[in-house]
Amino acid sequence: MKNMTINMNETIYVRVCNRLRNDILNGVFDSGMRLVIADLVKRYGVSQMPIREALQQLQGEGVVVMLPQKGAHVCKIDETLISNMYDIRACIEVMLVMKALQFMSNERIQQLEQIEAEFESAVIRNDFSALLMHNENFHRVINSCAGNPEATRIIDHRWGLIDNLRRKFGFSKSRLEEAVQDHQNLIRAIKERDEQSLVKLTRKHVLEAKSDLIIRMQEAASEARSEG
Fold first, then answer.
1. CATH number of residue 44's parent domain
2. In what order do the strands lie in the sheet with 71-74?
3. What's the confidence (pLDDT) of residue 1?
4. Residue limits of the HTH gntR-type domain (predicted)?
5. Which stretches of the chain are assigned E, i.e. beta strand?
6. Structural domain of residue 8, as residue ranges?
7. Number of domains in the chain
8. What is the pLDDT at residue 227?
9. Cβ distance 198 to 190 under 8 Å?
10. Rg of the chain over all Cα atoms, to the nearest angstrom
């Protein structure tokens, strides 16, 4: 019974976190707005505990900031925030791939090839949820081989926000084609134990993803102004 309660609480927390994140990204809560726990309890129909846990998670993602004596406030999610997050990710992932290369087994490489095949299939089918999942799994396999859970935790904390922004703004067609090619080149560099190429490819892959997302956000903002 105790385990069932824990699992239920985890499910509630995840559900509240996802709903609150989506509401923030969709403009239900304005940038800088204070998030009052009592109001969130009423809105989402849960107790204070999952609300507090969700706010802590979203603070880690950069969506919410907790101010001393002032509580939780919505962060400004703009191009500067996204650019900074991707720049941090580029630095961390370069470090991780250099370390991972030392421990990447043939079994792990085969796992990467399988995930990449599934990613390519999802791109062809235009299955957005699947391609996001396979892309995330691809990078997690590489990062996990580095044996640095603290570094991977930093990336994971930010992934929720990026994932939801991608769901909202999407990818350009050319970006998905580039991502497929990048993944193939990353696997090739790993097989050849080519650290120099792997580092360059990793940095390129992350920074081009940053540019694509920012452009998609700018295009959406321009369309919104035109419609207004």
1. 1.10.10.10
2. 34-35, 71-74, 64-67
3. 32
4. 10-77
5. 34-35, 64-67, 71-74
6. 2-74
7. 2
8. 73
9. yes
10. 19
